Amino acid sequence: MKEIETLGLSEEITKGIVELGFEEPTEIQSKVIPLLLEEDRDLIALSQTGTGKTAAYGLPIIHKTEVNEGHIQTLVLSPTRELCLQIANNLEMYAKYVRGVNVVAVYGGASITGQISLLRKRPQIVVATPGRMLDLIRRKKIDLSNVSRVVLDEADEMLDMGFKDELDAILDSTPDERTTILFSATMSPEAERISKRYMSEPVKVSVGRRNAGNRDVTHQCYVVRRDDRYAALKRMMDMHPDIYGIIFCRTRRETKEIADQLLGDGYTADALHGDMTQSQRDAVMGRFRVKSLNMLVATDVAARGLDVESLTHVIHYGLPDDTENYTHRSGRTGRAGKQGQSVSIIGKGDLRRIRFIEKMINQKIERVPVPDAKTVCEKRVGNYLQHLIELDTENTPAEEVMALAVERLQELDKDELIKKLVASKFSDFFTYYQNAKDLNVSGRDSDGRGRDRDRGYDRNDRRGDRRERGGDRVRYSRFKINVGKRDGVNPLKVIDLVNEVSPHMNVEIGKIDIMSSETYFDVDQNFKDHIMGAFKGSQFEGQSLSISEEKERRSFRGGNGGGRGGFNRRDNNRRDDRRSNYNSRPRRSYRS
């Protein structure tokens, strides 16, 4: 008897999941399934994605579904359309042999009319994204008055995406006596608030340490100059020709640039970002899932809710603003007992944050050297030769063709033939790496621009970028944009927005004030017209931006004359400072 058959699930469910290949429950399934089968009680489960959590709550839900009752009994909330569809599909597969179970998925980016029609067919289980569910509630097109169970899948992700108000409104629309099941990779303060407000004495289950990383993932970092990040990325990928992974970038612009560079270098890659339509996003994800793409280049927001099996690598093209996002990113590899790698490409100024992340995930992030050109070439050629040795020759061309090949090549001796074979395959590759430099930052380097910057910025940056030593006064124009704290804005994201619309410019920013629903910031008035024009039509995490100029003007002294201004704002990595009022000094943009 398989261990999965001893969990107490119905015969019909067991038959379906055994057919799917389930034999032995994962750790989270072993802990959660018996609890949910035993009694209806609130439960908090801390578990990384890819640990089998959908089955952990999904199988008991199906087991407890009353198929003769035509009302919604279970509501599952998930952060994204992709995850919503995947959960619904999994539940349908688990219930293959359970007659009468009706599962409906409702989500944004699709016709609400069609989804309303499906809801009229009286499903017992509804899987939804928060925005679409709240829309249906407000339209009075869904009845949650008889819901017995609410599952919050990836609660931390939903809260990070700004769905706090939606979750509150949805939970307030369900009966007080319902059971609430919360699954999360981490337990943020907002997730704690949800549990205290909407759950009663929940049982707590944890797989691994709270906020910890997956033990099947090894963590490494390359420390390089900013200008060398792409070269380091390419070397790492050239060392692993069978790589299949996600590269995380901080901005939409960066995802496009990196994807284009990878395509130019012969890799199958595409970008995933907030400016894409749903059909474009679906097309990219479809190609990635079937491995027509070996690399997906994505922002954190665009990648939320993605669940792709067998990823070998997650690459951080710079560390995320929110340290917990490191855990979310890395958790996408090393699943189902397979080993995965999480690789960060950083500057020396990021080492302090690396140490902080190590404490959070309770794992070592090993600093490893970027491989030199000789190592990369030897590894790539070695992989190719091993492939040749193992190549199955049963399906070779017709005998006449092979005879011609033998006849034409027999005049060459073995050594010459091998040289020609390798040269024909790797000529361009060897040319690329000829005279390639060492990319590693030495102990005296600091991201390629002076002394050690462990304190967060390089005082020597003032020499090249500052105003004249006399301390010319920098005049600022003040602007207001229509996003604020509740939209996830922080000072670094404001800086990123300016960088994104001002490539290769040295735009200096002064004071930043972040309110609940709007943000004020000062910019060197020489760039006033550019900023006004560039922000029009821009978006912040999918929300259209509007910008207006305020009457208030301020001036700060630049250079040494001002005492504190003039450092390169792109290199200030003291990101753990989340103060909304960012007054301390003017900042300059940096573009490599």
Short description:
It contains 22 helices and 22 strands.
The total count of helices amounts to 22
Q: First CA to last CA: what distance?
A: 61 Å
Strand-residue proportion: 15-25%
Query: Major β-sheet, in short?
Result: 7 strands, parallel
Salient structural properties:
single chain, 592 residues, alpha/beta, Rossmann fold, 4 domains, 7-stranded parallel sheet, 22 helices, 38% helix, globular, disordered C terminus
Please give a structural write-up.
This protein has four domains: 3-206, P-loop containing nucleotide triphosphate hydrolases (Rossmann fold); 217-372, P-loop containing nucleotide triphosphate hydrolases (Rossmann fold); 374-433, no CATH class; 459-588, Alpha-Beta Plaits (2-Layer Sandwich). The strands form four sheets. The protein has a seven-stranded parallel sheet with strand order 3-4-2-5-6-1-7, sandwiched between helices. It is α/β, with parallel strands linked by helices and 592 residues long. The termini are far apart. Keywords: ATP-binding, Helicase, Hydrolase, Nucleotide-binding. This is RNA helicase. GO terms for molecular function: ATP binding; hydrolase activity; RNA helicase activity; RNA strand annealing activity.
Strand and helix layout:
Layout: H1 11-19, H2 27-38, E1 43-46, H3 53-64, E2 74-77, H4 81-94, E3 103-106, H5 112-119, E4 125-128, H6 130-138, E5 149-152, H7 155-160, H8 164-172, E6 179-184, H9 189-198, E7 203-206, E8 217-223, H10 229-239, E9 245-249, H11 252-264, E10 269-272, H12 278-289, E11 295-299, H13 300-303, E12 313-316, H14 324-330, E13 340-346, H15 351-361, E14 365-367, H16 373-390, H17 399-409, H18 414-433, H19 462-465, E15 473-481, H20 491-501, E16 508-514, E17 519-524, H21 528-535, E18 539-540, E19 543-544, E20 547-550, E21 555-557, H22 559-562, E22 587-588
Parallel strand pairs: 1-6, 1-7, 2-4, 2-5, 3-4, 5-6, 8-13, 8-14, 9-11, 9-12, 10-11, 12-13
Antiparallel strand pairs: 15-17, 15-20, 15-21, 16-17, 16-22, 18-19
